[in-house]
Write a structure and sequence with these properties.
Layout: H1 2-26, H2 35-58
Length: 59
């Protein structure tokens, strides 16, 4: 149960990081942070969250 919640939180945080990071790279930065770092961390969080949820579905 806890892994499912963590997976959902990581997936949502990763998706938001990707969105804000890509918008900062190609358009107007919404958050005053490094856009490349936000995009890379968003990708890592998104992939790890999806991996956790996928692993839960197999067991």
């Amino acid at each position: 149960m806890a892994i499912k919640i963590i997976g959902i939180i990581l997936t949502i945080a990763g998706a938001l990081g990707l969105i804000f990071g890509v918008l900062g790279i190609f358009g107007t930065p919404i958050i005053n942070l490094n856009s490349w770092a936000m995009t890379i961390l968003g990708f890592i969080f998104f992939v790890s969250g999806i991996g956790m949820l996928k692993k839960l579905g197999q067991s």
